[in-house]
Amino acid sequence: MAPIIDDTGAWLGELRVSGVKGDAALARLQADAALLASLTILEGEVESLADALAETEDQLLALCELNEPDSDRLDIDRLLYRLVKQAMRLVKADAAFVVLTTPLKVVCSPGLTIPEPYLIALFERVRRVGSELLLSSAEFSFSPTNGTGNLFVAPLPLRERREIVAVLGLWLNRPASDLSPDLKLARSITEQAGAQLEIALLHEQLVAQARLQTEMELARRVQLGLLPQRSPTIAGLDIYGALRPALQVGGDFFDYIAPSGVTSRPFTFVVGDVSGKGLSAALLMAMTRTNLRSSALHNIITPAAILAQANEHLYDDFTKVGMMATVCVCQYDPAKRLLTIANAGHSPVILRPNGRAARLLGADGPPIGVLPIPLWQDESIPFQRGDVLTVATDGLNEERNKKGELFGIDRLLHQVDLLSTASPKEIADGLLAAVAHFNSDDIQDDDQTVVVLKAC
Amino acid sequence: MQISMREVKPMSKSDQTIAVVGLSGRFDAHEVPQVRQALMQATNRTKGHVVIDLGGVNFIDSSGLACLVQGMKYCREHGADQILCNLQQPVRIIFELTRLDRAFKIMVSVEEATTALAA
Predict the structure, then answer these.
(1) How many domains does chain A have?
(2) Can you give the pTM of this predicted structure?
(3) Where are the domains of chain B?
(4) Which side of chain B, N or C, has fewer Cβ within a 10 Å radius?
(5) Confidence (pLDDT) at A339
(6) Which residues of A touch B103 (CB under 8 A)?
(7) Measured between beta carbons, which residues in chain A are less than 8 angstroms from residue B70?
């Protein structure tokens, strides 16, 4: 009989033979038992190596998945969920979480019992100190996974941002002395995840920008679509209008209101400019235009009354959003060759009587949306053959050149004088060209609108 | 754009404080959010009148004008008044062209405005 003992001295079994005797047989038996013990030990080592290999393969797979490029990487929610899952697998953590601010997102592994406000407080702490934290379970008044261990919280570094916007937290049920290789791996995971998060955040930003740009483009199309597509035919009058849009959506508009079949209603046209830019200006422009059109078409007779009604309808809305609109309303009576104008803070309005110098017509009341009471009055102006009325928006006179000089009212008056013998289209195009030439090197800041009337 | 704010306690029967908000530079759409906030703060802080010193403003566009209109309405909602003063020539012309000079109280200097409000 010979015992089979492993390298730690533990008894594994025994080898017995019968029918043989002598020292030689015993020595052989003991040698065979030692061989069996060695084989058993080797088999155990192979098994543990196979386990270690399987674990390493699992980690490599997790590492590959973490780095694998696919469309999910651009989805921030999925990216954070995967990060929590793969970081746990790689570092053999017992629980994990990620906190991202702007937009605030908190993703936790199922086993984590730390309340969300505490995770956000941990994020704030990392942001404050500017580097990773290693906290032992003794520092908690509760146990994050119902066990003792350490919590490692590290920032996800983003190259393009100096401030910390996200952290990865890992709970490890192991003593701090055993964590060195795990923490090294965790740091490299945060580096990798930071790069991916940066791409996802940039992608989200680009998508938001593209969406906004599309909406602005739609608003711009609506704004331009509301403009008259052709000039009306009015006896004794030649008329032309143009709007040169700025890069950003503005609040300029003009409209011709010529009721068909209602001879008692005069031809009315309006030019307006809602303060501000962007979607809000475009939206209020559409409201203002509709309101003015509705009044002029249905029940209101004079320009001042049209403005008064628009102000009554729109004052509260303009007040709520802190905006206002300058509007010039003009009517033309072909029989009397008479223009009637009411002007709510609009400028420039330029009259150039035939053979005389162009002059600015001032407004007779503030823009609509400023005061709840109507202050506008109708002013009648004879409009004889060769007279020119130009109603523009401040996008022309407030255009700047590269020296910072304004185009100004005086240059506009001078241009109207120079162009006065031309057709309304040539005058409008000439004014816009002069302004564009003045600001040849810069981007157009504001919409530029010109409507020109000429008595013929 | 530079924005400054100070409080003035004029010699008068009432002990109401007047906020003086000084603006300087180009007042356009880009500056509106910070000016709007300053004007609201001025009204909220003093619970009283606001004087806006436009002495340093060399240009104002329609967004800037709308911001001042909003400030005026906010003041009036709170039972107070807003006075503009020290308008430079280019800015005064814009107020005249748009006839906003009919909507705002406009005075020559901060002293004149605070005296009028304290009276």
Answers:
(1) 3
(2) 0.70
(3) 2-118
(4) C
(5) 95
(6) 366, 370-371
(7) 319, 322
The partner residue sitting opposite B102, judged by closest CB among A275, A366, A394, is A366
Kindly give, in sequence order, each residue whose CB lies less than 8 Å from that of residue B28, ignoring residues fewer than 6 positions away: B59, B60, B61, B63, B64
Q: Which residues in chain A (341-370) have CB-CB distances under 8 A to chain B?
A: 343, 345-348, 360, 362-367, 369-370
Full domain range(s) for residue A397: 226-455
- Between CA B57 and CA A143 the distance in angstroms is 61
Evaluated on CA atoms A289, A293, A294, A299, the torsion sign reads positive
* Nearest residue, CB atoms, A366 vs list B59, B67, B98: B98
Specify the pairing of strand B18-27 against strand B50-60: parallel
Question: Rounded to 5 degrees, what angle do the CA atoms A424, A427, A430 make?
Answer: 145
Residue A454: strand, helix, or coil: strand
Interface test with A, best of B97, B101, B105 (most A CBs within 10 A): B97
Task: List the single residue in B with minimal CA-CA distance to A319.
Answer: B70
pLDDT digits (tens, 9 = 90+) for A172-186: 888 888 888 888 889
**Cα nearest neighbour of B72 on chain A:** A370
Residues in A touching B59 (Cβ below 8 Å)? 406
Tell me how long chain B is. 119
Mean pLDDT, residues A43-53 taken together: 84
Q: Is the ipTM of this complex over 0.85?
A: yes
A374 and A300 share a domain?
yes
Read off the tokens for B18: 């007047």
- My answer on whether A99 and A180 are in the same domain is yes
CATH number of this structure's domain B2-118: 3.30.750.24
Residue A447 lies in a domain: yes
pLDDT digits (tens, 9 = 90+) for A237-271: 999 999 998 877 889 999 999 766 555 678 899 99
For residue A52, how many other CB atoms are within 10 A of its CB? 10
Q: φ and ψ at A368, to 5 degrees?
A: -75, 145
Report whether pLDDT(A71) > 60.
no
